[in-house]
Amino acid sequence: MEQIIFHIDVNSAFLSWSALEKLKAGETTDLRTIPSIIGGDTAKRHGVVLAKSIPAKAYGIRTGEPVSDALKKCPFLVSCPPDHKLYSEKSKLLMTYLSDICPDIEQVSVDECYMDFTSIAFRYPDPATAARLIKDGIRDAFGFTVNVGISDKKVLAKMASDFRKPDLVHTLYSHEIEKKLWHLPLSALFMCGRSSVEALHNLGILTIGDLAKSDPQIIVSHLKSHGKMLWEFANGIDDSRVVPIPSEAKGIGNSTTLSKDALTVEEIRKCLLELSESVALRLRKAHMRAFMVSVEIKYSSFQTASHQTTLQAATNDSGTIYHAACRLAAELWTGAPVRLLGIRTSRLEDEDAPMQLSLFDLGEEKPLSEKQKSLNEALDKIRSKYGKNAVVRGTLLKNDP
Hints:
Blueprint (H helix, E strand, L loop, with lengths): L4 E6 L2 H12 L11 E4 L9 E4 L1 H4 L9 H7 L4 E3 L3 H18 L3 E5 L2 E5 L10 H16 L3 E6 L2 H8 L7 E3 L5 H4 L13 H9 L5 H5 L3 H19 L17 E11 L2 H21 L2 E12 L4 E12 L2 H15 L5 E13 L19 H17 L7 H5 L3
Parallel strand pairs: 2-4, 7-8
Antiparallel strand pairs: 1-6, 1-7, 2-3, 5-6, 9-12, 10-11, 10-12
């Protein structure tokens, strides 16, 4: 049977979840029915619109713009601070609900996930009927709405869920892209941010169809590997699979929102070093090693990208994690301003598990020597007593990959 993938995305998640909580507490006005936004704390660099209501959208308010700009567009706009603890709770409830329907769930953010519908398709008349039942079930159970995108490709399912909202189901199968996708502007293409749109416009490429029919070599010459990816997405080329994550410990990671956008490789690597030290310390405290390292980048446009790699030897060493993270970041980064960076490790094993050695040189991924292990233990003790910034590994910064 052909692979069928759903992309399930909560409509204005932060605003919907805050609205429901306020109604539960006795509020009489539903934030979703008036011009309203969820806006953060300017001092913590979250002074931007994180979510907006449909009435707010009518005033031209955009996700990611400063709250101050949004208030100029609509002086009577209602602004509420985010409640990330609440959002985490709502997200867990949603993912548990979906996992009971289908075990093959890949959560990609607090408010969206992919579902590999293929294994449960026999239970329903057709995918669209199933998607509507899931969508309506979420609305009835929790009071908020979702969009569901259906396709045979992950990237197309993602773009289908971004079609007209809210509370709707859309399909975008490979055979439908010419009719449903190619007439749309480049900004509707997943991962095509403002700078990419401008670069493509300069080449006379205005729509997704224009890009799909362009010479990929010309696109790559101007936008490098990111251009190749955009050309593939425009043509519905995506071989990635839904990767279900077990409900048990999924891994250990850390992320940080930068005080100001990172604009250079050096700034990105410095942040990755701090994150690597933090993640490695947590692994050692848990007496675990990781086979997989992933890096997440969120741009100032709020677009997010991630990439992962499997190590040849499991590790809890910050240097190994750092070098892997730098390689991943180099593959991911488009040159656009970076707002958030994250490192996550997964495929964990016990620290005392036998280490399988390779006949080949593992380079930076080779098992740690006893001297390196002793160094890590000493650094952990110093930081535990005097703070995490008490000592910094200058050698890693000097030997950036």
